[in-house]
From TrEMBL, chain A:
GO MF assignments: amino acid binding; aspartate carbamoyltransferase activity
Protein name in UniProt: Aspartate carbamoyltransferase
Biological process according to GO: 'de novo' pyrimidine nucleobase biosynthetic process; 'de novo' UMP biosynthetic process; amino acid metabolic process
Stated role: Catalyzes the condensation of carbamoyl phosphate and aspartate to form carbamoyl aspartate and inorganic phosphate, the committed step in the de novo pyrimidine nucleotide biosynthesis pathway.
Organism: Sediminitomix flava
Keyword vocabulary terms for this entry: Pyrimidine biosynthesis, Transferase
From TrEMBL, chain B:
Protein's name in the database: Pyrimidine operon attenuation protein/uracil phosphoribosyltransferase
Signal is among the record's keywords: no
Sample GO molecular function, one term: glycosyltransferase activity
Source superkingdom: Bacteria
Keywords for this protein: Glycosyltransferase, Transferase
CDD domains given in the database record: PRTases_typeI
Domain Phosphoribosyltransferase: 12-166
Coiled coil stretches, renumbered: none
Amino acid sequence: MLSTRHLLGIKDLTEKDIHTIFETADSFKEVINRPIKKVPSLRDVTIANVFFENSTRTKLSFELAEKRLSADVINFSASGSSVKKGETLLDTVNNILSMKVDMIVMRHSFPGAPHFLSKHINANIVNAGDGTHEHPTQALLDTFSIRERLGDVAGKKVVIVGDILHSRVALSNIFALQKLGAEVMVCGPNTLIPKYIDQLGVKVENDIRKALKWCDVANILRIQMERQLVKNFPSTREYSMYYGVNKELIDSLDKEIVIMHPGPINRGVEITTDVADSEQAIILDQVENGVAVRMAVLYLLAGR
Amino acid sequence: MAKVKIMNEALLDITISRLCQQLIENHGDFKDSLILGLQPRGVLLADRIAKRIKELDGTDVSVGKLDITFHRDDFGRREAPLMPSKTEIPFLIEDKRVILVDDVLFTGRTVRAAMGAMLTFGRPKQVELLVLVDRKYSRDVPIEPTYIGKSVNSIQSQRVTVEWKETGAEEESVWLSLED
């Protein structure tokens, strides 16, 4: 049983909550590898996926998780909706809830949007990303994937590389990794690292080679051009030269590290193809685990 | 709450042997048969049955564990969702003769859920149900066991508990708890 009715962010979860989600996800991982990958648990639950921002992977993953749990699913995207006609967020969601919807999975470009909603509506809310704030299910599937590959998260050294400034994945990962007892470092150019991030108890490193030498796991983030209001580095070519993870860099280490990426990948920018497709990369495992972890989250919240 | 012992260790042992003899009679060399123990307590009985068949007949029987949590019909009607146990079925059940094993048969809802869970792994040729204790006249659904260790008359508020050494009991036994 989780200590919360909603999943708004990793910050609100306890370590016990995360372990409960992992144990439930273990069972769902077994379910999605059966010949028939569907269970009837949520057959009387209706879930609305309300996406005010573009998404491919997360939306697909949630929808698949919901359908594998036998929930009824409706999809809403802001483009072409009443939002464009001036309807407020609360009115939009209340109209959806009037159709007897039990859960809302929401992505919004404004940090705190799901937190605001949780104070005004009765349905369970799952945050599928709110601006540059949090993306809790991504952090849960990332840490679940580390646990699966390395046996445990506690005591592991994890570096998050790249655009930390605009990344909700980075923030949720920092919270999740720290709650589970991992050491966290962020690495990137100073222009892409928030000013006081060391106050969260993470190490800061500008040299990618030193960061990779230090870590057991490297979680490489995409450069989020769509969120950058000013130019934070001269060119993607220069970023790739200084912070791109390539085979030469990986081969120069005297150990094997685990390579992760939340997707979508900009091949040749933050990571080269030969690294992304190597044995050390668990990028596709992360995608598979995403469905199991989201099934676990929905199952545990819908039962409350 | 008062308890009465309805099976002691010796009787439990004899009952398990008798159930195994019945299985051997119906399944022969178990070439196309397998056992699925229902989590959590049916698994202990399933392991015991397989071990006894090996002792009696020298036959190795495939034993799996089946968790029914996600197939229950009471989701959302409880305080909190139930945590699942492990499902381990490292073999194909398609076209096999499956023996579902549980310690106590009460309302039949667990077995109904087990059939739903089992069918996600394939379509067996035949399904049988073996229970150590059948609580007669308590069924919510039309399910009856193929093999019964002991039948008992009980009322809704009573409980039947099977105690195994694997779960820390000093003596293996079956208890019926009575109302105060």
